[in-house]
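Input sequence (147 aa), recorded before submission:
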Amino acid sequence: MKTNRIVKVAAITIVAAGLMFVLSMPLWATYANKYSASVTTASVPETVRNLVDSKLVAPLYKRYYGEGDDRMMSRCPSGVHANYKSTEANQDGFYHGTVSNWIGCSKKEVCKFRANTTTVEVLEGDNFIAVAIWLKKPMAKQDKGEI
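Predicted structure, token format:
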């Protein structure tokens, strides 16, 4: 009799846990969509990703966080990250995206960029300019992606 009761309690517990999991899936999907990149970064050619990382993301990280590589593990995507808008190059031959500075789970867009295998350019006003020129310009606090 006691064994039968334990089995019933275990079955109810398993059903309740499964129901909670199923009900929480829409909430998790909302969270994942809110904080995920526009496209999978791996789908953009490695040469383009490496160029954006070395010419734009790394210098911005250095500007905001200094020389050291003292990154901490976090559930949130802290730091400077490039997000690509498409897995394919646009008609102009460039991959377009944004660079964001994440502080904890809060995101601030720093700039919009376009890149191909040889060039990275940042949108300033209505025109794209070379990333090297853009990085030399002084940035106001709000332009630095500070939150």
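Checked by second reader. The first helix runs from residue 2 to 35.
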